[in-house]
Amino acid sequence: IRRDDLRNIAIIAHVDHGKTTLVDAMLRQSGQFRASQLQGEQILDSNALERERGITILAKNIAIQYGGTKINVIDTPGHADFGGEVERTLGLADGALLLVDAFEGPMPQTKFVLRKAFERKLKPIVVINKIDRPDARPDEVLNEIFDTFIELGANEEQADFPYIFASGKAGFASHDPQAREGTIQPLLDLILRHVPGPEVNPDGPFKLLVTSLDFSEYVGRIAIGRIHSGSVKRGTKLAIVKAGGVIANGAADQVLVFDKLGRVEVESASAGEIVAIVGVPAIDIGDTVTVPDDPTPLPRIEVDEPTLSMNFRVNDGPLVGEGQFLTTRHLKERLDRELISNVALRVEPSDERDAFRVSGRGLLHLSVLIETMRREGYELTVGKPEVILKRIDGVLHEPYEYLVVDVPQGQMGPVMELVGARRGEMVKMDVKGAYAHLEFTIPARGLLGLRTRLLSATQGEAILHHNFHGYQPMKGEIPRRVNGVMVSMVRGQAVAYALDHLQQRGTMFVSPGDEVYEGMIIAENARSEDLLVNPCKEKKLTNIRAAGSDKNILLKPPRQLTLEIALEYIESDELVEVTPSKIRLRKRHLT
Ligand code: GDP
């Protein structure tokens, strides 16, 4: 049967297109907030790193009560895929809300998630947001969205999407693009009308598939997922079916559901609802939580394996700043904490003294962690990134990734060339619309350094995602031109030097500030064609290129991107020191 008192909707939006503001308006107007509670406070606020990167790293969920219906708003990771999270998140929803800025239009970065939503047969509702902007062009943007849908393979029904215009800031939604006031209610009504309530079996045995995890110091691991069948009450005895059918015990010490501020404890919850369960310490993503007398598991979902390892070690010498020493134990504790919710991460002892071998899904995944730790004040030295090899039947195997690249049609050439040179094999090509969509299999080794190269070769336009594909026998070396770069950054000033720049071509790190581009040269002989771009802002790059025809331009690189680039260039035993005040790659000569 279908529940009508509940809706589960995933929200898909490019960073800055106004998701937080809009969700706030929905909450406020559905009568859940006293005005005082809201003052300057945003519920879904993104962290600084996400904003700089243009990707959503942490997903945050809330629920809205509207009339007699509860709407669970599920935040999707906007861009990066660190182990299948996009798929898992979409799996919780019965519908999707695509939020698009009325001036900027649909952004290529949201295509990956949107494509996955189409594959899951979700039918998005389109919200053209910020129509109060003086430069808003709602009708054109609507057409662009339609084109994007067609390009992404929307079926007839999906292409006939419901849409509405809105201003989260002014707090209204309307079917009239010229509207300047009103309430958010038309949007809530549209959601109720177009998103089906969950189809459930309320009477079956309680079953839930764990799609994400949370952690609290007091209660340990918390399982999050959508109830597939039956219901769960506080105190219910539970069985946890793990990989290979292994069963662990637990109990529903607490059952929590989403609410306006995050989560709230309830007495019980039933099929269709998304819950967090406390009392299941041995839980992992993909496990089924069920009842002991019927422990049949739901189809398991797998988290992508880590494919890349690096050594992490605390720096020698006194810290900059506090004069406090960081110990190996601090590092271990910090990494252990990370492991609880960062599901595609692995930490092991290293051969190197006082170091840990940290494995993740790729350079982006690891550098987000390193940069987050750096911002917390950790002073680290990290080693060369290495692909994780396995010996299977005596033969050395290496990890392969399934690589998806979206790029303007005119830039397809360099993409195919670069990926091909790294043993990428094209599996699929789709060139509807202005963008080409390319899919490859590629050894994980080939991904090292590929992102920056692709961005550089496509003026920052290429958008990459990759998923684990499997292990295959190793097939010799991947030709890789190694170039060196020396990066040194001073907090606040964000000065970077790429001293040993790429041997024949200079490389510049480019990043816009919030609205203004500023900075200075970082490489000798740099040419404007060689700009390295912050992928989240590629649209604005034209301005820079026009301004900086030669060296001595720009820059205020986001430290995280700079770090990622620095990591790509580490060879042999060279190390990167990552401190709150600087990132430095120690290497002078390069081959
Ligand atoms: P998010 O990154 O998608 O969560 O976006 P935010 O809600 O944080 O908004 C990003 C920026 O857009 C902020 O500076 C907001 O003030 C601005 N903004 C959000 N909604 C609107 C809107 O409806 N109209 C206008 N003009 N600006 C908006």
From TrEMBL:
CDD domains: BipA_III, BipA_TypA_II, TypA_BipA
Reactions accelerated catalytically: GTP + H2O = GDP + phosphate + H(+)
Subcellular location: Cytoplasm
Primary localization class, coarse: cytoplasm
Domain Tr-type G span(s) in chain numbering: 4-199
Top EC group: hydrolase
Any Gene Ontology CC annotation: cytosol
Its biological purpose: A 50S ribosomal subunit assembly protein with GTPase activity, required for 50S subunit assembly at low temperatures, may also play a role in translation. Binds GTP and analogs. Binds the 70S ribosome between the 30S and 50S subunits, in a similar position as ribosome-bound EF-G; it contacts a number of ribosomal proteins, both rRNAs and the A-site tRNA.
Protein known as: Large ribosomal subunit assembly factor BipA
Name of the gene this protein is made from: bipA
